[in-house]
Amino acid sequence: MAAFELLLIAAGLSADAFAVSLGNGLTMPRFSARQAFAIAIAFGVFQAIMPAIGYSLGYMIADKIEAIDHIAALVLLGFIGGRMIFGGVKTLIRERTQEDQEQGRARGQERERERERSSVKALTVPGLIVQAIATSIDALIVGVSFAAIGLSRSGMIGAALTIGVFTFALSFIGVAIGKKFGNLLGSKAEIAGGVILLGIGIKIFMEHVFFA
Q1: 145-161 as b/e, with b when 16 or more CB fall inside 10 Å?
Q2: Is residue 152 pLDDT above 70, yes or no?
């Protein structure tokens, strides 16, 4: 797998964590580098572990899907990408609908109280773990696709570390941006990540069909 493709996969997988980090930053009373670091570590660690787990599971059946590895990669990455695009579009529509429905000062005060309540939940250790697991499930499936296309163990380790570091950096930045700019990028980031993963799945499939 080319380094550029790996970076694109890392960017795509990091999109969910980035979007959640934006939300966490939005709910912070003030920006805290310590809290941002904790969020980034949680997301980065789980995003690095999940591909390794998925790879191990996929490696057990790699010989059985060798003939259809390109189809498996397309289906897995396409499923993840499509789901992210759908979720991002759905969130974007909901956000715009909520903006249209906002009326007066009372609604703004209620939303601020909801943000304060969610801030307490988002920044607890159990809350972070739940967020980290939820945003890294897709990475587990990508790990299975790594095994399906025959990525070596050393290549998988490098991929997992790259995804983890990439996610850590984007999550830390996401908290800072979220505190400053709010929800402007959340759903758009998720859509972009989905497009990237879907595109890579199509590329793997096309390479196998036309250049194998």
Answers
A1: bbbbbebeeeebeebbe
A2: yes
Cβ neighbors of 61 (< 8 A, separation 6 or more) are 147
From the list 22, 44, 54, the residue with the least C-alpha distance to 175 is 22
Amino acid letter, 204: I
User: What torsion do the CA atoms of 27, 29, 35, 39 make, to the nearest 10 degrees?
Assistant: 0
CB-CB contact of 76 with 204 (8 Å)? no
- List of E strands, 40-108: none
Kindly report, residue by residue over 20-64, the tens digit of the pLDDT.
888 778 777 778 888 899 999 999 999 999 999 999 988 776 566
pLDDT digits (tens, 9 = 90+) for 182-206: 555 566 766 776 787 688 778 768 8
User: What's the pTM value of the predicted model, to 2 decimals?
Assistant: 0.67
The CA distance from 55 to 68, in Å, is: 16
Question: Is the Cβ–Cβ distance between 58 and 146 less than 8 Å?
Answer: yes
The angle at the Cα of 72, spanning 67 to 76, to the nearest 5 degrees, equals: 170
Helix %, strand %, coil % for the chain, to 5? 90, 0, 10
For the chain, percent of residues with pLDDT exceeding 90: 19
